[in-house]
């Protein structure tokens, strides 16, 4: 049973400044790392890899919370591709990210942050509404 | 990173201010955002860039972007070469690749050439096109090229995805963070190797064992115990491609082999290894065991990821000499233009094709719309000696089977394993 009452408690995660504007949206939390080439159906924005932790999840317009980036250089173009076709996540919150994911997010204009405390993977839950403030280095859980 | 200030030169400030045009301004602005994200203190000039740019990964929006950039006068100021792409135009029809995809790919190539690209279409540029010297800063994409440049050649690059390598080509520089910075190149974790690695695929298996254990771009594993093994560029190529694929790793050291690791102490540069992994013959075998066959019959044998060298093409041609690929099995091999020409002159291509193998040029198999090809041809399983391909191709709903090179060729001929 959750001890957090949506009306009274806000949890803020803090870390290094990230990239992008302030956004608010619903979180989708994955215990698996993520690659737009290995894991995503880029026609629909749905996680398609069968053995992925959130297979079948629709990440369109969501704040995607992942432990790490995965795979090769594909994200560089792929995020722009899905952003322009309206099926991209609203923001990326990563435990740890890598250059490719950040380069891709910058090209696509998708906010991205990493290295936050407390650990976003265990603090944020799927369905939480969060505010992502990259410039301040803050992610706030607003409601659950 | 908090407290770190990015210092730009007067040239870079002029680029930011738009004095070199809108495309240069767009490119440097993107680079500055990445630089700030990773706490770079400055930009560093690069001698060249190597970029991924094909329709499979760029999509229609990427093509539109390229068209716009070209129309606005985009020009590369340092040499930019291209990575393996998704279409071999000579084979597209035979592989039932959609004409629309082929036409879009031609458009991408047209715009890139107008911007000044050198169309090399290879993921083994370091074997055939350009070998940077020790300490040289480059902006390379395709992870396998980066890890080889950093680790084996001692050059300096981060993973530069398509748009990042493009931007580096436009501005002639890249943000100096990650593996451009000497301190970040020191080893972080130790791998005690005690296994005979006899086949190319064994080196890929080593990369898989390490990458599964250490999956973090910012780590640099130090492999100790390879000093007495037979090491070739192709073996290091398979190791690097696999480390990058399984572990998102951009750098490794090999004690007594790679240039920043004459000794274990030099490789760590004063750091203490955070963790140690022991890799023995059983650990290598367990990588093969993690890709069990779903059945004996094999639909498809693919040697790719990375493209084959001249030496690998020779080996395959010898393994196939006087034999025929089974009628129920396809054998597909990829290489680049340079190696295809050389192997053609030496008779290797003819030998492979006479046996029924298909040699594709300028592509890598998993980029080619592999999922759609599987559906069109009714393929279900795929046998390969590439640990990297085995790792990736499951995403396209193939059943991957990873085995040694001779086993792969034997299965191609018999149509089945065993």
Described by strand count, sense and barrel closure, the largest sheet of chain B is: 5 strands, parallel
**What assembly state would you assign to the polypeptide chains in this entry?**
heterodimer
Which bin fits the share of residues in helices of chain A?
10-25%
Strands of chain B, total number = 14
Query: Quick one: overall form of chain A?
Result: globular
Strand content of chain B: 5-15%
Largest interface: A-B, 41 and 41 residues
Compute the CA-based radius of gyration of chain B: 22 Å
Topology, number of strands of chain A:
10
How many helices of chain A? 3
- How would you characterize the largest beta sheet of chain A? 8 strands, mixed
Straight-line N-to-C gap of chain A: 12 Å
Which regions of chain B contain 5 or more consecutive residues with pLDDT less than 50?
A: none
Q: Name the average pLDDT of chain A.
A: 90
| DSSP strand content of chain A | 25-35%
Q: Give the spatial strand order of the biggest sheet of chain B.
A: 12-11-10-13-14
The number of helices of chain B is: 17
Mean pLDDT of chain B: 97
Distance between the termini of chain B: 55 Å
How would you briefly describe this protein structure?
Chain A is of the alpha/beta class and 144 residues long. Helix content of chain A is 17%, strand content 31%. In chain A, the strands form two sheets. In chain A, strands 7-6-5-2-9-10-1-8 form an eight-stranded mixed beta sheet, with helices on one face. In chain A, strands 3-4 form a two-stranded antiparallel sheet.
Please tell me about this protein's structure:
The complex is a heterodimer of chains A (144) and B (418). With 144 residues, chain A is of the alpha/beta class. Helices cover 17% and strands 31% of the residues of chain A. An eight-stranded mixed beta sheet of chain A has the order 7-6-5-2-9-10-1-8, covered by helices on one side. Chain A has a two-stranded antiparallel sheet with strand order 3-4. In chain A, a hairpin with a 4-residue loop joins strand 9 (129-133) and strand 10 (138-143). Chain A is globular. The two termini of chain A are 12 Å apart. Chain B is α/β, with parallel strands linked by helices and 418 residues long. Chain B is built from 17 helices and 14 strands. Chain B has helices at 10-16, 22-37, 55-71, 99-115, 125-128, 143-153, 162-171, 200-213, 233-247, 264-268, 281-289, 310-319, 337-345, 348-354, 370-377, 387-393, 405-414; strands at residues 43-45, 49-51, 80-82, 139-140, 173-175, 189-194, 221-224, 253-254, 276-280, 300-308, 330-335, 358-361, 381-384, 399-402. Chain B has a five-stranded parallel beta sheet with strand order 12-11-10-13-14, sandwiched between helices. In chain B, helix 3 (55-71) links the parallel strand 2 and strand 3.
């Amino acid at each position: 049973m959750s001890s957090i009452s949506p009306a009274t408690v806000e949890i803020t995660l803090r870390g290094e400044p990230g990239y992008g504007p302030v956004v608010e949206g619903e979180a989708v939390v994955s215990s698996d790392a993520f690659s737009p080439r290995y894991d995503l159906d880029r026609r629909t924005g749905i996680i398609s890899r069968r053995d992925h932790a959130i297979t079948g999840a629709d990440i369109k317009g969501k704040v995607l919370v992942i432990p790490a980036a995965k795979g090769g250089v594909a994200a560089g173009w792929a995020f722009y591709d899905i952003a322009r076709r309206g099926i991209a996540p609203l923001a990326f919150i990563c435990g740890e990210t890598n250059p490719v994911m950040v380069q891709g997010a910058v090209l696509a204009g998708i906010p991205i942050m990493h290295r936050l405390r407390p650990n976003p993977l265990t603090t944020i839950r799927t369905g939480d509404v969060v505010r992502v403030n990259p410039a301040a280095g803050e992610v706030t859980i607003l409601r659950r | 990173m908090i407290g770190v200030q990015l210092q730009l030169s007067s040239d870079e400030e002029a680029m930011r201010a738009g004095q070199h045009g809108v495309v240069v301004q767009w490119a440097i602005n993107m680079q500055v955002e990445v630089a700030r994200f990773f706490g770079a203190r400055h930009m560093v000039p690069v001698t060249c860039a190597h970029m991924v740019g094909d329709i499979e990964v760029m999509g229609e929006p990427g093509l539109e972007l390229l068209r716009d950039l070209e129309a606005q006068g985009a020009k590369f100021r340092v040499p930019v070469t291209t990575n393996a792409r998704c279409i071999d135009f000579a084979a597209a029809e035979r592989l039932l690749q959609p004409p629309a995809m082929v036409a879009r790919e031609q458009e991408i190539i047209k715009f890139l050439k107008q911007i000044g690209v050198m169309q090399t279409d290879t993921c083994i540029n370091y074997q055939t096109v350009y070998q940077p010297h020790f300490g040289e800063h480059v902006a390379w994409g395709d992870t396998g090229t980066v890890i080889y440049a950093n680790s084996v050649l001692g050059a300096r690059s981060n993973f530069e995805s398509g748009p990042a390598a493009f931007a580096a080509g436009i501005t002639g520089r890249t943000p100096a963070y990650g593996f451009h910075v000497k301190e970040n190149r020191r080893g972080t974790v130790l791998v005690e190797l005690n296994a005979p690695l006899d086949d190319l695929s064994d080196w890929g298996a080593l990369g898989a064992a390490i990458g599964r254990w250490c999956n973090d771009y910012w780590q640099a594993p130090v492999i100790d115990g390879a000093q007495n093994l037979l090491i070739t560029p192709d073996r290091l190529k398979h190791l690097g491609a696999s480390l990058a694929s399984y572990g998102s790793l951009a750098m490794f050291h090999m004690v007594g082999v790679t240039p920043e690791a004459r000794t274990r102490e030099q490789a760590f540069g004063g750091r203490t290894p955070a963790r140690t992994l022991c890799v023995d013959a059983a650990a290598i075998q367990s990588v093969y065991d993690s890709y069990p066959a779903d059945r004996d019959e094999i639909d498809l044998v693919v040697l790719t990821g990375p493209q084959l060298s001249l030496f690998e093409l020779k080996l395959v041609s010898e393994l196939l000499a006087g034999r025929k690929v089974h009628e129920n099995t396809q054998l597909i091999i990829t290489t680049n233009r340079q190696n295809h020409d050389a192997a053609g002159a030496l008779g290797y291509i003819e030998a492979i094709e006479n046996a029924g193998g298909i040699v594709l040029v300028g592509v890598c198999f998993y980029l080619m719309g592999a999922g759609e090809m599987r559906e069109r041809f009714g393929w279900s399983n795929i046998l390969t000696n590439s640990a990297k391909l085995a790792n990736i191709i499951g995403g396209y709903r193939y059943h991957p089977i990873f085995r040694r090179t001779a086993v792969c060729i034997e299965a191609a001929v018999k149509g089945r394993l065993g």
